[in-house]
Amino acid sequence: MLALFQALEKFLKLLVTFANGLMLLLVFAQVITRYIFSWTPAWGEELARYLFVWVVFLSMPLVASYGGHMCIETLTSRVRGATLKFLNIVADVFSIVFLGIMVYYGCIMVARTSFQTSPAMQLPMSYVYVVIPFGCAVMLIYVIANLIKTLKTPASEIKPKGSE
Fold first, then answer.
1. CA distance 123 to 67
2. DSSP secondary structure string for all residues of 57-108
3. pLDDT tens per residue across all 164 residues of the chain
């Protein structure tokens, strides 16, 4: 199972790096063509926007793989032991519920937008939105793994984020 997580993480890192680099090149080219030629291709801005969406939703599982998800560090940095373990469990349960909703409604959105096309590139919009349920599903796997790890770890060994 660990090998699967490592392979998935490596794949996501490569995809995010490629998408980020391509987005950077597109935006740079847009600026150059706008100021030198007073013209920009319409598809460049659209593709950069869609790549940004993909980078965001593919980066979420990477953040979760490092145990970095939303938490209120002001509170969690001040508690220890069983209280901290309880707060981590609650945060993971809420994250699981939220991500489950995102996966469910993301799949519905992909199905509903399969007939729409983007204005400049004529790309099916479902290609743009498919990353939402995918990214949230992968993040859901990481959060469930983190919850299982938290449940197995004794309360005395739970440490606040950032102190590890």
1. 35
2. HHHHHHHHHTT-----HHHHTS--HHHHHHHHHHHHHHHHHHHHHHHHHHHH
3. 788 888 999 999 999 999 999 999 999 999 999 999 998 888 999 999 999 999 999 999 998 887 766 666 777 778 888 888 998 899 899 999 999 999 999 999 999 999 999 999 999 999 999 999 999 999 999 999 989 999 999 988 887 765 55
Angle formed at CA 81 by CA 66 and CA 159, multiple of 5 degrees = 25
Q: How far is CA 146 from CA 34, 52, 164, in A?
A: 47, 27, 15
Question: 39 to each of 43, 48, 118, how far by Cα in Å?
Answer: 12, 17, 20
| Paired strand residues for 117 | 124
Sign of CA dihedral 90, 91, 95, 98: positive
**Residues 9 and 63: beta-carbon distance below 8 Å:** no
Contacts of 16 (CB under 8 A, 6+ apart): 55, 58, 59, 62
d(CA 95, CA 130): 20
What is the Cα 91 distance to its own chain's centre? Answer: 17
